[in-house]
Amino acid sequence: MRSSRCRVAVALLVGGAMVLAACGPGTAMSLTGARGASLTSTADEPDSTPATLASPAATSPTAEPTALTSSGPAAAPVPSATSNGAYRLITEPDDGMSAVYSLMSSATSSLDVSMYELVDPQAEAVLAADAERGVSVRVVLDGNEERKSNTAAYQELSAHGITVHWAPSQFYASHEKAMVIDQQIALIMTGNLTSRYYPNTRDFAVVDNVAADVAAVEQVFKADFDGVAIEAPAGGSLVWSPGSHGPLVAFIDSAQSTVTVENEELSDAAIVQALVRAEQRGVAVTLTMTYQKEWAPAFNTLSAAGASVATYTGEKPIYIHAKVIDVDAGTDHAAVLVGSQNFTQTSLDRNRELGVVVDDPAIA
Asked: In the predicted model, is pLDDT for residue 10 greater than 60?
């Protein structure tokens, strides 16, 4: 979950692919690599040209390493064989939220939205306008963790004739951020519809045109909207929580050359050990995150294994909210997982979450 304690810089899109980049002015970065080596630097002057994390800039190690254990491998999600050309990546804040608003406004018959947090007057206005021109708009909002934040949107949308339901209480949180437009396009996001965070938050969204994916997202939305328990559809390129532990670990285990990770939270032992195993078998592992003391044991475990670990602190220029695992980038078998899952046991096993594996090298 988002914390106001830190703001961080992270992935930029370079030439269509995800590339980690150094932060901007006034932001400290910690970088450790093989044998836990570290250097110290703080960016004091603006730099309009992003530098990759190969650039040395770091602070001292964050904490003593903590031993973690693994829960073992499981079946990996399989990217759809028809996925090349079927996906489009939206990068925030670079692309601006107009790309998301345009998709929402494009609905002609139906728009179904599952959102952890909705505090965005413009998004609410788009949903209201859709409903007013005859689009069937349905919304599921988290009511366990974010009911207070979501109540205003719940009331505003309801006043415009939109049917809004609180998500099923069986989940610790309904942390999914997704929508289905006209039962033909799914939008799977790492970020919430919370406008105060847009200017300085790194997030991604995948526009998914694969029919099987869209049908599965719609199926789960309908169950959650109706408050009916459902086992999320197995197979395909989607990764659902509860139950995403095994697929995420197996996706990391599938890496042959590189694993690049960005996330907001990292405390899950199985994920950490999967990254350790990757480094031990010769896969280059790179992790970039916001520094918070809760994740320091994982940072140090990975650094001790030889992974490159970068952490940023400070209010600007960017806070890392993205949840991404990029495997074997630059190869013909590159794949990337983009979704709502943080790397905690709660997120993977107790929340409603959704991610998608994209095997398009232009994105991965």
From this structure: no
